[in-house]
Amino acid sequence: MKIAEKTVRFLTIAMIALFTAAGFAAVTDKKQDIQNDGGRVNTKEEVEAYILHHIKDSHDFSLWSYTSDEGERKHVGFPLPVILWTSKGLVTFMSSEFHHNDDGHVIVEKDGLKFAKIHSKIFELDNNAVSISFDETHHATNAHKLLDFSITKSVVGILFIGFLLLFWFSRLAKQYKTKQIPTGFARVLEPLVLYVRDEIARPNIGDKHYRRFTGYLLTVFFFIWVLNLAGLTPLGFNVTGQLAVTGCLAIFTLVIYTVSGNKDYWMHMIWMPGVPFLIRPVLAIIELAGALIIKPFSLLVRLFANISAGHIVVMSLIAIMFTLKESLGVVGATGLSLVLSFFITLIEVLVAFLQAYIFTMLSALFIGMAVADHSEAH
Q1: Phi-psi bin for 169: left (phi > 0), alpha (psi -120 to 50), beta?
Q2: In this structure, is residue 18 part of a structural domain?
Q3: Is the pLDDT of residue 222 over 90?
Q4: Residues 115 and 236 in one domain
């Protein structure tokens, strides 16, 4: 009963705050229409551009932004190191020198070179160029891309989650040296570790070989799961929604089952027994394409597409309070956006676990197929 009373009280306070804020927004709405919007995201086109920009990687860690009374856009966050390999060698500077500009209008001069950032990509301007020129398709005509080794927002997320997992599991390992049953947060990790070992690794790889690969499967599972959950926080991480990250994870799995494949695995793939000789070369091409291309491609695309789609859906529902403000009113648009985005976020919490589970399960399945003794089946 106490829990129900607290829940009802919380919802009541939240609804009062919502309608109070909505009423204040309705009063000040006319003033905002007269003044300059100061870079606010209001129209449908601006919302779409903002969402697509949000799911991309970034050279700075921006938490949120607001418009000051003078109409100037302010960004709250911190810059990250920009590390570039240019025509004159290595060049480094902080991302704050771009002043959060992403359309190429801010030019940064370093070591006699000029740089501009366009759609989260840094370009080096050609000699004697003082500004970026664009063609009819909005591609830079007097600048070229370069090798970018910058510490981006995704890299910060990977390092942060990596150190966090290292801290958690080092504490869990230390507890096993002194006690049989872990305490504290380690009691949450232990059943998850046992689940991955007993329900994913052992059934798919087999009792003979599963111990060799359990460490990798545990790392992949917790890495993807915690990063997916971090992407649902206001920090704005979208690490597993980057093709480069999911591609690397898929390549790790590819290398492991390719290197670990036994003689039976490669014989069944290259020269499959039990079929006519004329069919064997055709099947070999299909099997090699499946093992080296289709399997890792399915891993990287599935994770990337599901996480990116989830971010787009949640942010699109949040944007309802702007796009439908005129038709539903401030109160109606804000309430509808709050309810829909809340329930979709709950579903995304489930999807975060589900995608980590699927990636780990398929990785274990592919590894198990490579190390299985196929001669016993014939």
Answers
A1: alpha
A2: yes
A3: yes
A4: no
Tell whether 133 and 217 lie within a shared domain: no
pLDDT above 90 coverage of the chain, percent? 39
CB < 8 Å & 24+ apart, contacts of 104-107 = 104/132, 104/134, 104/140, 104/143, 105/131, 105/132, 107/131, 107/132
Q: Look at residue 158 and tell me if it is in a domain.
A: yes
Structure letter (DSSP) for residue 198? I
Using alpha carbons only, give the angle 232, 235, 241 rounded to the nearest 5 degrees: 55
- Residue 114 sits in the same domain as residue 158: no
Residue 256 inside a domain? The answer is yes
CA angle 49, 104, 238 (to 5 degrees): 45
Same domain, 95 and 163: no
Residue with the two structure tokens 């949450």: 188
Whether the per-residue pLDDT at 305 is higher than 90: the answer is: yes
Greater pLDDT, 211 or 2: 211
Angle, helices 153-178/243-260, rounded to nearest 10 degrees: 50
Could you give the CA distance from residue 227 to residue 246 in angstroms, rounded to a whole number?
A: 12
Give the residue from 151, 181, 208 where a domain finishes.
151
Map residue 77 onto helix, strand or coil: strand
3-state class percentages of the chain: helix first, strand second, coil last, to nearest 5:
65, 15, 25
Q: What CA–CA distance (Å, rounded) separates 211 from 120?
A: 42
- At 236-286, the pLDDT tens digits run 778 999 999 999 999 999 999 999 988 888 888 888 888 888 888 899 999
Separation between Cα atoms, residue 349 and residue 54, nearest integer Å? 19
Segment 128-179, tens digit of pLDDT: 888 888 888 878 888 888 899 999 999 999 999 999 999 998 888 888 888 8
Assess whether 78 and 169 both reside in one domain: no
CA-to-CA distance for 232 and 215, rounded, in angstroms? 26
207, 105: one domain: no
In angstroms, the CA 106 to CA 131 distance is 8
**350: containing domain:** 154-377
What do you get for the CA distance between the two ends of the chain, in Å? 63
Domain presence at residue 53? no
